[in-house]
Amino acid sequence: MTKVPAITATFWVIKVLSTTIGETFADYLTVNVGLGPLVTDAVMAAVLATALVVQFRTRKYTPWIYWLCVVLVSIVGTQITDFFTDTLGVSLYLSTAVFAVVLAVVFVVWHRQEHTLAITSIDTPRREAFYWGAILTTFALGTAAGDLATEALSLGFRNGVLIFGGLILAVWIAYKIGAGQVLTFWAAYVLTRPLGASMGDLLTQSKEFGGLALGASLTSILFFAVIIVLVAREQLLVNRHGVAVKGMGPAGGRRADYAWAGAGLAVVAAVGLGLSSSRSTTPDDSTFVVAEQAPPVAGQSAGTTGGSASARKPHPTTRLGDLTSFATIVADVKGRVAKNDLGGGKSRIKDLEVAWDDAEAGLKPRDPGKWHQLDGQIDDALTALRAGSPSQADCSATLATLITTLNKFDGV
InterPro entries from the entry (predicted)? Predict the structure, then answer.
């Protein structure tokens, strides 16, 4: 019996929404919980392996197990790309090309072994293994291609929604006028990864960056709620009719499926816009945390607070925009370190880590080079304060360098 779902409108809606869930959850574990990238990668890889064992042992398509695996594959696929880009320093151009080649190799070997790439034929363990291998690679490729478009090419997440949404529409038109079902399915599957990420960034990012300022937590809860409803409906239909006839009959016909998919998207849009209109310019869980009275930022005149943007020298050539909030946190940390309160500095710099990570999708496309320079200096400050035996001198030096760069790159 087939182990994968029928390709319907709700299939694509769940796929796009699960992409954002996977990405935000990985970021939450890495930054907010503080597990770090290596521990998060190991934990999620182990959880994915466990879920796939359960998936392979099932004798038929079980929606909740299948979609759990998809969410986990989304997380791990994203982590693979991030590892190459952030840890190893591989360019997005190279990683995109490499993952495209890997996916092509998977398809060639799969076709030579099974003589088909149709997902309607996933009815043996070997075919299912090829299927999940391809799925994992599409997520890695989709992440790399999406980051290449929105970050390296500086298109931004708002343009990303339009570009990748338009490409998916073009694939659908190609399918309607006679393009192969297998080719169009896998093309759309790759493209839904960057589309989902761009949609998530559009909802989570601050209004300063052109987002709706919902924050990662509210966006994840909203998407997760819609996914649960759609998967529960799918599970009910499969229990009643089986996957082979899912989508048939009054309860699961094509019109009903379109209605449920449309309703899911409408809920996301309505709730997102409604919450956005009632919120400030920054989301509650990705706020640039500012101290009430921060010490003066290095390089400013006496009596000027670190959070005062008006007293800071403008740098119109910098596209990063207002970095005052980040500088304020750093100045606060530096003040605590100056008093040898390294524990307080370590605790406070967590606010900088969370704020910087949450603002990445909005800041990075503006000027990737300068963003990476600041990102590296923030990592240096985090490392110095989180050392087993932190040195006051090392912490002060890294923070001073970071403040100088923030002042230099500030685009107020």
Answer: DUF347
